[in-house]
Amino acid sequence: MTLHLALATALLGAMLFFAGLVAPSVFRFLEGEAAGRFLRGLFPRYYLVGLAVSAIGVPVAVWEGGFVGAGVLAVVASGFALSRFVLVGRINQARDAELAGDKAAGKRFKALHRTSVLINLAQMLALLYLVLRATEIL
């Protein structure tokens, strides 16, 4: 296995662990305000780590001759950058406004949150494609 595929596989595993275990557990074990504070601290770090791993994978993939992998990892890195540097702030603002009683902000929050979830899902599918392609399943 090449290094860029190892990075992609590790990142996919971490993303699945986060989406399947960490995020749902937060709301099960923490009260509303504590859960919100925890997630506001966690998500920016999650996106930065994902951005770092996928961005490191791009030049590694090019060096290894894995140009499809480089492209997929570049797209994944872009999704992390968009989520971290554009969506997180807007999601937090909309949520704060919603909690302050702004009903329109609640709709904005839901739309922005849905966008971040869809980006994350698309990233996972892209990484899964890369891993399956390397195993010659695809």
Rg computed from alpha carbons, rounded to a whole number of angstroms: 17 Å
Structural shape: elongated
What series of H and E elements makes up the topology?
HHHH
Quantity of strands, as a count? 0
The description of the largest β-sheet is: none
Q: Specify the number of helices.
A: 4
Structural class: mainly alpha
Describe the structure.
- With 138 residues, the chain is mainly alpha-helical.
- 90% of the residues lie in helices and 0% in strands.
- It has four helices and no strands.
- It is elongated, with a radius of gyration of 17 Å.
Structure keywords:
138 residues, mainly alpha, 4 helices, elongated
Secondary structure: elements and pairs:
Layout lengths: L2 H27 L2 H32 L3 H33 L3 H32 L4
Helix pairs in contact: 1-2, 1-4, 2-3, 3-4
Quickly describe the structure.
This protein has 138 residues and is an all-alpha fold.
